[in-house]
What we know:
The chain is an alpha+beta fold. It has 20 helices and 14 strands.
Amino acid sequence: xxxxxxxxxxxxxxxxxxxxxxxxxxxxxxxxxxxxxxxxxxxxxxxxxxxxxxxxxxxxxxxxxxxxxxxxxxxxxxxxxxxxxxxxxxxxxxxxxxxxxxxxxxxxxxxxxxxxxxxxxxxxxxxxxxxxxxxxxxxxxxxxxxxxxxxxxxxxxxxxxxxxxxxxxxxxxxxxxxxxxxxxxxxxxxxxxxxxxxxxxxxxxxxxxxxxxxxxxxxxxxxxxxxxxxxxxxxxxxxxxxxxxxxxxxxxxxxxxxxxxxxxxxxxxxxxxxxxxxxxxxxxxxxxxxxxxxxxxxxxxxxxxxxxxxxxxxxxxxxxxxxxxxxxxxxxxxxxxxxxxxxxxxxxxxxxxxxxxxxxxxxxxxxxxxxxxxxxxxxxxxxxxxxxxxxxxxxxxxxxxxxxxxxxxxxxxxxxxxxxxxxxxxxxxxxxxxxxxxxxxxxxxxxxxxxxxxxxxxxxxxxxxxxxxxxxxxxxxxxxxxxxxxxxxxxxxxxxxxxxxxxxxxxxxxxxxxxxxxxxxxxxxxxxxxxxxxxxxxxxxxxxxxxxxxxxxxxxxxxxxxxxxxxx
Length: 568
């Protein structure tokens, strides 16, 4: 019985990799989980080589011989398994370890003993079978390893009888145990292949699962980023009507009622109660979304929530070609501004029509005004001089009315402006004598500062002259005697700037915002159309006009004309 115990003990030692390899490989995999896949896969070779080496060492330490005749070479089991599964470098190292252990454990040996008892004779066949072995199924791998263990065991068992002339007479139990020993070695090899394959399949499955998980999380992250980027409130729900995803826009809407809410507070909640808390009641939906999923139709509804107008749309999500509804996407769009803009556009259309009618009416009014003025001048000549004062007042008012009509028609015109490359300096120099004449009559002075290297601009000279005259006369009317009007041009990085400055009383801050509104004026007899006309001219030239004023110091109007586009 001692021989059987020895065989079973060595059998268990040969199975050491079957116990240690799954445990150590799992620990190594956890250790290198954050590393690259190549390094994680390298851990498999290292762990298998180490566990097989441990098994070989213990098998060598406790090795014995049946009845002192047949060597029990169980170290071949982990050795052959490792040589078939491992890289060539690890296989050679383990083969060298096998030789070293044999030399250490045997006091007397010959070359024949080494060749037969260590398996060295079939090492080349094992190494040559490696590539073929790795391509086989589990059953094929078991067969290859069993074949090599059978040959190795037979060579080891037969070595005492061929080399040392041991006799088999009356050794029936020895022969039986020798066959049993071979069977146990093959059984150990089969168990070892099974454990290694199970471990590798498990790790392979885990690798695939991790890859799919990473892909899933990447896709989920991309979808979340896409949802967050949209200005619409988007919510995804599952088949049970619970919220699974939502974007930042919806959270912004939800925080109007729950300022401290986070995504986790909404995720997993039923859709209808969440929408109801936002006072979004979709009449076509029931608390249970089952009828909606069965109908598979898009539900859209316009909802008025106090001063907010919301457009809601719920669409089913269908899985691939299976025609199975797996959820729904809910879109909530705040169209309050769009609705306001639509109403304003309607008002603009009506105002445009009214403006066109007013322009036509005012144009027709000019003819009777001209007739009335002509007859008044004729009556003035035939009336006594005592009535001249009244005639002068009436004629001035008629001229004022005609001026208002001219400004209104200029402001209301919507025709394209013909522009040409024009020097702003030339326009100012043409107007300078007229401006000096007006200033002298008022006891005021003018200073003209023309910048250097001012490029030509795309301008309509007639309109620019009207712009400069209006701004300069406004400045003169705002100043008292000895006031100074400054007209300046200068080159700035974004274009050419025209500045008209006066030393008048300035404009109060509460009136500056309305300066360019039609019919708004700070003058006693002003029409309120002059500055509106100036702004219209500037905008037709793609420019910008601004005002800088200080009460008691003066006012400066700045007009920026953009540089002309460069020719390609």
